[in-house]
Design goal:
The protein is α/β, with parallel strands linked by helices. It is 60% helix and 15% strand. The termini are far apart. 33% of the residues are buried.
Length: 624
């Protein structure tokens, strides 16, 4: 049994492996032997020439010269091949070995000396190293050894039999050398294949999203580059989940990650030759619709995706339902390269989020024009000198009982050198997208405090905080430092924050507002009722004032739910000892319709539109 296993292992090691990798690796060994052979036989050729080319050595001279030339030609041919098979390498090695064998035999017979028999042993070792296959090794070893036996016993009687004992040792050595060489080559190939496999896997993984297992951003853009080079029409879409942030806030990121994986799984199930899906990042996914021939087909396909995504999810710990919005763009009519496709689809998604949440918006000429305006606006914001370009207007907050101003809201106005006067409803949102909002808040606060310092101490001023402002503790600290340096009492400074801004990062917003309140500043909850209103905010936040959204005030002039809500909020503020501001009161008729409520402060066109610093100072002076 042991002998059979050993024989099997030997046969497996010595078998002819038709492997391109083995042939390519062994080609290097043969190439080096050919270089050595060329040098050696050229040396012999020159040596014969230097000795005077005795006629008795003419045959050996010719063999050496021919061998050197053929070896050189074989080397060039071997190196010029991009690939070679084991069979072709075996035939080449056999040809070269026959040539070497003939050269040695001619050398032995020319001016015979017994010592020349050692060359048969030497070429046996060369044959073992230079043979491409096991069978060629055995054959090539057998030829010089058999020739040596012929010389010792028949061809040249009297030759030392020690050569045969050396031959036996040579056989063992050369077989061992071949086995060692082949084993080294196989290990080298295995290591190379393993490294190549790892490299291939790493390359593959670099195109896979690690969380969801679908194509990642890199893969999405690589596919877009490929499709745009092929110049075949297709549609590209960006999908964003509606309500995903609330899932993360309420249930934690582990549930959010699980939900993203489930969404990706549904997308992958819908994927095929006509739909390629991938994850761009966060809760944003990419759709490439290859089979859609027109806008209707693309919209129908996108709506199918939205419907599939919007089905209820049963996770391990919770059951959830979310929605999705998609922005679509056509190639090549609306964008011609990968980056443009993404930016256009992303802008269409932005429009969907604004006005068609849960639906599909197709990027068209109108969106293209709006996107150019948006890009020009964002570019101007990045280059803006806000200290020079921003100015403030002030809208009074009037105590209803005295009809006198108690405070003013500082409102930023931007006059861009390139765009002219830009409405705040446009540039504030753009500043939040580009990260410029903090710079604007700092400039507004600094300018407002400088104005407030010149006004009577009974007058206060309020400033708006964005979600980015309220979520950055370091920035809040810098605002307090501005207040401290201004010399204005903190109690005269009020910071307004919307519920939407609080929801962006509730914990950070609560901490920031608490720090401001502890420093003596007042806190107002702005646009109450317009967003995700929660009485929890009234309980947790350090509030001094609530500003009721103008939509309720406008509708409260008639009997109905809006009027009841206004009355309830006014009464609630009284019980909680909070100041209540009604925004948007524009006429005496509206004010009269609310007269049966215990109104506190009014802010609206009835008592004053946003005004200049001079007009505000005049109003204050008139109320003294």
């Amino acid at each position: 049994m042991f002998i059979n296993e050993a024989f099997t292992r030997l046969k497996m090691r010595l078998r002819v492996t038709e492997s391109a990798a083995l042939a390519d690796t062994h080609r290097s060994v043969v190439s080096y032997l050919l270089i050595v052979g060329v040098v050696y036989f050229l040396y012999k050729t020159l040596d014969y020439i230097a000795a005077g080319l005795d006629p008795s050595h003419f045959l050996t001279f010719t063999c050496s010269l021919v061998t050197a030339l053929i070896y050189g030609a074989a080397y060039r041919w071997l190196r010029s091949r991009s690939a070679i098979t084991v069979a072709a390498l075996e035939r080449l090695c056999l040809t070269l070995q026959v040539l070497l064998y003939v050269d040695v035999i001619v050398y032995i017979h020319t001016d015979y000396r017994e010592s020349k028999l050692v060359y048969l042993l030497l070429i046996a070792m060369v044959f073992a190293i230079g043979s491409a296959t096991a069978r060629l090794t055995i054959l090539s070893i057998a030829a010089p050894i058999a020739t040596l036996g012929f010389y010792v016993y028949i061809g040249m009687p009297g030759a030392d039999a020690e050569y045969l004992r050396l031959a036996s040792a040579t056989v063992a050595v050369v077989l061992g050398a071949f086995a060692a060489l082949r084993s080294a080559l196989i290990r080298q190939i295995a290591a190379r294949d393993l490294a190549s496999g790892y490299a291939g896997e790493l390359e593959r993984q670099s195109y896979i999203d690690p969380l969801t297992g679908i194509k990642n951003r890199r893969s999405v853009f690589a596919n877009l580059d490929l499709l745009t080079r092929q110049s075949q029409p297709f549609w590209f879409g960006v999908l964003d989940l509606d309500g995903f942030k609330q899932v993360n806030d309420q249930h934690g990121h582990s549930v959010g990650d699980d939900l993203l994986s489930r969404v990706a799984s549904r997308l992958q199930q819908m994927a095929g030759p006509d739909l390629v899906v991938g994850r761009i990042g966060g809760d944003e996914f990419a759709l490439t619709l290859i089979g859609a021939r027109n806008a209707q087909m693309a919209t129908e396909a996108a709506n199918k995706v939205i419907n599939a995504i919007s089905e209820r999810y049963r996770l391990d710990t919770v059951e959830l339902k979310i929605g999705a919005s998609i922005g679509l763009v056509a190639f090549p009519t609306m964008a011609s390269e990968a980056r443009g496709l993404y930016e256009s689809a992303d802008f269409a998604l932005y429009k969907a989020k604004q006005s068609a949440r849960g639906g599909v918006v197709i990027y068209n000429e109108a969106e293209a024009a709006e996107q150019k305006q948006k890009e020009a606006l964002e570019h101007a914001l990045r280059l803006a000198d806000f200290d020079r370009e921003l100015h403030l207007l002030f809208q009074p907050q009037i105590r209803l009982d005295s009809r006198q101003p108690e405070s003013f809201e500082a409102l930023a106005r931007w006059n861009s050198p390139t765009l002219g006067s830009v409405p705040p409803g446009i540039f504030i949102g753009a500043a939040e997208r580009t990260g410029q909002i903090k710079a604007i808040t700092s400039v507004v606060l600094a300018k407002g405090l400088a104005t407030l310092a010149a006004w009577p101490e009974r007058i206060g001023m309020s400033f708006n905080l964005s979600a980015q402002d309220a979520g950055d503790m370091n920035f809040v600290g810098s605002l307090l430092e501005l207040v401290r340096r201004s010399g204005v009492a903190p109690q005269r400074v009020e910071f307004e924050v919307t519920e939407t801004a609080i929801l962006a990062d509730q914990d950070a917003a609560h901490r920031a507002l608490s720090i401001l309140a502890e420093a003596g500043c007042r806190i107002a909850l702005d646009d109450f009722g317009s967003g995700y209103s929660s009485l929890q905010h009234l309980r947790v936040l350090p509030l001094d004032k609530i500003k009721l959204d103008r939509t309720f005030v406008r509708d409260a002039t008639e009997p109905g739910a809006a009027r009841e809500i206004v009355a309830s909020v006014v009464a609630l503020c009284e019980r909680l000892q909070l100041r209540c501001v009604l925004e948007g009161v524009e006429t005496e008729q509206e004010l009269a319709a609310l007269s049966d409520m215990k109104l506190d402060i009014i802010q609206g066109y009835l008592f004053g539109r946003p005004m200049s610093e001079t007009a505000a100072a005049d109003l204050i002076a008139a109320s003294a």
